[in-house]
């Protein structure tokens, strides 16, 4: 069973890594926030604004995964869609760092409330993700600070010392998101024509 010390350590690391992320993001000029790294692929090709929106979406998605494990030990996450937030990745470049940081702040408050409401044995419950395999709730929650650390490094233009342990090859989320956004725009453009 998870210990109180492990949970305190989790929350400390979450606070430390989020503080580093905020500091790094606030240090960017508006031009830097929109800079696209050269010779990058996937998430590393995102602007700092897109990285912040991605972190917001993933925090909400991880929260949903944790809630699924709490509702059903061994939950299969394959049918749980990525969660949407008010400023999705594809809209992030039209927004400000402050707007995205505010969204992250509100989402983190929810996450901390979720953690504080859990019994110690709840952290040992599991869920199975197609991307990461079967992990405990505590392992999913540790992803929060590791993910922050990864994207803080990317925002600062350096290689992260943390890389997620995907079951297979990491999906090119940037490409997937661009394709999804293009499909939604095409569907929206067709909608009025089909109503006539």
Provide a descriptive summary of the structure in words:
With 196 residues, the protein is mainly α. The chain has one domain (4-195): dinb family like domain (Four Helix Bundle (Hemerythrin (Met), subunit A)). Helices cover 58% and strands 5% of the residues. The chain is built from six helices and three strands. A three-stranded mixed beta sheet has the order 1-2-3. α4 links the parallel β1 and β2 (126-129). α1 runs parallel beside α5.
Q: How would the blueprint of this fold be written?
A:
Blueprint: H1 4-26, H2 30-33, H3 48-71, E1 75-76, H4 97-116, E2 126-129, E3 133-136, H5 137-155, H6 173-195
Parallel strand pairs: 1-2
Antiparallel strand pairs: 2-3
Helix pairs in contact: 1-4, 1-5, 3-4, 3-5
> Helix share of residues?
55-70%
The global form is globular
The CATH topology label is Four Helix Bundle (Hemerythrin (Met), subunit A)
Mean pLDDT: 87
Provide the number of structural domains. Answer: 1
- Architecture, CATH level 2? Up-down Bundle
Q: Give the beta-strand count.
A: 3
Order of helices and strands: HHHEHEEHH
Rg from alpha-carbon coordinates: 18 Å
Strand content: 5-15%
CATH level 1 class label: Mainly Alpha
């Amino acid at each position: 069973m998870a210990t109180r010390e492990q949970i305190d350590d989790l929350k400390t690391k979450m606070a430390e890594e989020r503080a580093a992320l905020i500091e790094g993001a606030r240090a960017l000029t508006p031009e830097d926030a929109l800079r696209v790294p050269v010779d990058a692929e996937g998430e590393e090709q995102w602007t700092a604004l897109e990285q912040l929106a991605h972190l917001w979406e993933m925090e909400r998605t991880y929260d949903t995964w944790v809630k699924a494990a709490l509702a059903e030990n061994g939950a299969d996450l394959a049918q749980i869609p990525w969660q949407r937030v008010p400023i999705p990745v594809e809209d992030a470049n039209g927004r400000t760092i402050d707007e995205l940081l505010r969204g992250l702040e509100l989402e983190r408050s929810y996450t901390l409330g979720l953690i504080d409401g859990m019994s110690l044995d709840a952290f040992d419950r599991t869920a199975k993700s197609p991307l990461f395999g079967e992990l405990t709730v505590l392992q999913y929650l540790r992803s929060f600070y590791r993910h922050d650390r990864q994207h803080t490094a990317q925002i600062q233009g350096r290689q992260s010392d943390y890389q997620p342990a995907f079951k297979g090859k990491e999906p090119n989320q940037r490409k997937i998101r661009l394709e999804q956004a293009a499909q939604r725009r095409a569907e929206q453009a067709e909608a009025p024509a089909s109503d006539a």
